[in-house]
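Practice set, problem 2.
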Amino acid sequence: MTNLTDPIFHDEKAAEKHIEVSRWNGEPVCAHCGSTNVTRMKGKTQRGMFQCNDCRDKFTVRTGTVMERSHVPLHKWLLAMHLLASSKKGISASQIARNIGVTYKTAWFLCHRIREAMTPINPEPLGGPGKVVEADETYIGGKDKNRHKSKRSRKGTGPITKQSVVALVEREGHVRSFHVANVTGPLLRSVLVQNADRRSWLMTDDFRGYVTVGKEYAGHAAVKHSLGEYVKHGVVHSNTVENFFSIMKRGVIGTYHHWSEAHLGRYTAEFDFRYNHRDITDGERTAVALKGIEGKRLTYRRVDKLAA
């Protein structure tokens, strides 16, 4: 079990060794050609570097990961990762900046790249024969009337002024949530058939957008929230996905306060990750996130730089 007194969170050499073991299991692999015929370079200016004896390229434990080209010390990467993985309702970049001793801009940089590491690549479909998948939608954002007059929407009031999120939850299993442009029948069908096995039983509320796609599944049952019905026959409900949304909303209201439309999908991936690994310890969850750093890059370029 990892705790905050572990040397990997305070000592750079320990952090470097920990990531090497996590990524290569003690046997460095060239990040460029995949060869194991590598040499650890010596000297103060080449500390932490390896040279591949086949392709002759140099690399470090950061190469080919979300940490590539970052000058933030590795032990601070690991500490930020542990804090984000262990905070049930999330932790703001401002709080991480104070906890690990970096600027807000650096903490924001770290958090979004760690969220990228938490995002699974080609995950298996949810559900399957005899399993239940619950689907529901929610809306993220404050009331339009509470905004400054210059920032109020001209589209109207209600959900249309907020950001839509659709989530699928396999009972006793994983969750997958998505930021979507709007909630319509065709869009819901696209999300469902791409992410939930059609041999599953589908459980939803009485939103009409689920009626047509529900016919493609082994079975479809709905509770009529509009009539105050929340559980039917003891098994027909969407309480599991609504419980997931309650944790997410607590994170928005109490921790982050605001999620921008541009990055909302990364925040949902963060909450998905913690939910999907809820039955293991904080240290084990951090280790899973660390395994996800490889083969991913996330770069942001300023608009004025692109225009230049």
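Problem 2, part (b): a different protein.
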Amino acid sequence: MAPAAITLSTPQDLALSGRWAARFMDALAPQLELLRLPAASAVTADATGVEALDTSGAWVLHKLLLRLRGEGVVVTLRGLRPEFAQLLDVVAQHVADQAKLPPPLAKPSASALERIGRSAAAAAQEMVALVNFIGETASVFAACVAHPVRLRWRPVLYNIRNAGFDALPIVGVLSLLLGIVVAYQGADQLRQYGANIFVADLVGLSMLREFAPLITAIIIAGRSGSAYAAQIGTMAVTEEIDAMRTIGIAPLELLVLPKIIALVIVLPLLTVFADVFGVFGGMLMARAQLGVGFPEFLDRFAKAVSITSYLVGIGKAPVFAAIITLVGCFQGFRTKGGADSVGRQTTRSVVQSIFLVIVADALFSIAFSVLDL
């Protein structure tokens, strides 16, 4: 089984030999590169040595003949078996037909208005899908309330530990630093007016009403919300969710509901934890920059911050928890393809969770202002 070969025995004689098939043509490429014939010469290509010819070999042979004729060489092919010659004619006809086809039209680039419209339509479709997902989750939750035995408490406890207890260090550190920053930024202004003691009002109201629940929700969105999207997305890619449906396990009941219940429980507790560390950070900075001791700070803090302000901050936490969990799980279920899709949906879950948490916080502020809370 000799591979395909081209031999120039004399300047007028070209010998073709071997098996001109796809698997035997590895050595032919360098021979074609080295083959150079003088222009306006006449060459006879002897193909009696060709042992086999398939469509790949016929295409290469046809291209060789076209190249030589394009260089002004008169090539005469002889000795090719009739069945090989017929295949060569078919390939030549196909190449000629392809050359007659008009070039494909370039797809026009989308205008800015079209891109905006497509993005708006995709966002609207995703919003509708999210609303449907929330409805399905609510239906599953109602079914579990009607039949409490269906609720899986072990995943709930696992998520409480994972999203709550394990998040205490990062929540505490960032809340402490945030309290220090708030007190430090207000120290200069308060010192100018001799109102050092009002740093307790500044730190207490800002931390308890806004910063503590908001910073805690953002931390959990980046920490746990992304984990939910990555976990469910990986299960979707590996078809584990389809397997669960096949054996009769509802994915929402096993994967989504325990996470929602766990986060609704732990996020208010984490917010209280953040309140404590944020106020403590403000106390440290008030003592260092304004000369306000701990007893004076706490005395003013008890007078300035009402129980309503404390409950306002705590009341936001369950809503933030539901948003983070629903968006993270929703984006996880929308994962399709491979690892790239998992990363993309995880990023979307974090961005959308933080965006919706801030929007919800703004709506809470408007509502509380209207209600004079």
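Answer key, part (b): The mean pLDDT is 86. The CA atoms of residues 110 and 116 lie 10 Å apart.
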